[in-house]
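[Discussion] Sanity-checking designs against the backbone

I'm trying to build intuition for which residues belong where. Below is a structure token string of 294 positions. I'd appreciate it if someone posts a full sequence so I can compare it with mine line by line.
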């Protein structure tokens, strides 16, 4: 059980704040949530966290979201976590293309630790945007717009209550990578997860990221990538990760071959009498790579 109070900068209780427990390597659907009372108090009963520790998130209108690690403990342990919410920082600016032309309807996302979303907005007809109620500290910006390469992980550092209004986000034209994913026998592999990361300037901070899946014929196409170097990774259950590196826009036929994992394969079979074909019970079966012994 986790309980505590939600207050503002002056220590006054905040009623109606949403307190959510998150658990996982990315911001998965909330495990538990509650609203603070008129006195700003909340209480959450959490299941065993498993491999990943819980992160407590507190949100209230007009305040920056706050993320707090939940201390590890037994199932019956009661942890006291008081959370103080601050008036958030404001980040505004413009989204433009490589020629400086405004980009309208760009979707912008601010994240903490590259996983927790702390702000979202859209650019207007002149490419202008405002992200309000942002927490202080280091954040990462993501941007996506039709016809442009996705922008991933642009770092920005904000002070408490800072009003930063001179941000310019420049989006590169969209490029694509396509190809076919096959197994070691040349058979097409459907429903393979394909991740692509591209970087126009190998020494620069900005990257673009996009992903997709192969069709029944093993073919895939991923758009919204910047030019320059690209890293491609493919994943499928029972197979080793496979990929390649190259330079866009030359990688229009980026074909990938995947091979079975050396370990983790499952063999289902029956042991029978060679003469009568009757099943043999309690027979010990040993295996070594490529060989099954009875």
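Best answer:
Here's mine. Compare freely.
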């Amino acid at each position: 059980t986790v309980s505590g109070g939600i207050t503002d900068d002056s220590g006054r209780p905040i009623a109606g704040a949403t307190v959510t427990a998150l658990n996982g390597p990315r911001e998965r659907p909330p495990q538990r949530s509650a609203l603070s009372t008129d006195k700003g108090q909340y209480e959450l009963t959490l299941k065993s966290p498993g491999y990943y520790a819980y992160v407590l998130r507190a949100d209230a209108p007009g305040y920056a979201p706050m993320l707090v690690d939940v201390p590890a403990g037994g199932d019956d342990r009661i942890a006291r976590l008081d959370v103080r919410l601050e008036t958030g920082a404001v980040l505004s600016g413009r989204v433009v293309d490589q020629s400086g032309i405004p980009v309208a309807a760009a979707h912008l996302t601010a994240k903490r630790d590259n996983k927790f979303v702390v702000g979202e907005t859209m650019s207007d007809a002149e490419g202008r945007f405002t992200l309000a109620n942002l927490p202080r500290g280091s954040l990462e910006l993501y941007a996506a717009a039709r016809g442009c390469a996705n922008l991933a992980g642009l770092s920005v550092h904000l002070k408490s209550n800072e009003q930063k209004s001179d941000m310019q986000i420049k989006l590169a034209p969209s490029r694509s990578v396509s190809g076919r994913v096959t197994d070691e026998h040349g058979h097409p592999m459907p429903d393979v997860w394909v991740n692509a990361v591209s970087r126009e300037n190998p020494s620069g901070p900005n990257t673009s990221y996009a992903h997709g899946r192969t069709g029944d014929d093993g073919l895939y196409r991923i758009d919204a990538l910047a030019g320059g170097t690209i890293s491609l990774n493919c994943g499928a259950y029972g197979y080793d990760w496979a990929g390649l590196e190259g330079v866009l826009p030359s990688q229009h036929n980026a074909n990938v071959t995947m091979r079975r994992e050396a370990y983790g394969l499952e063999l289902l079979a029956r042991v029978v009498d060679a003469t009568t074909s009757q099943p043999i019970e309690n027979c010990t079966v040993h295996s070594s790579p490529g060989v099954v012994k009875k």
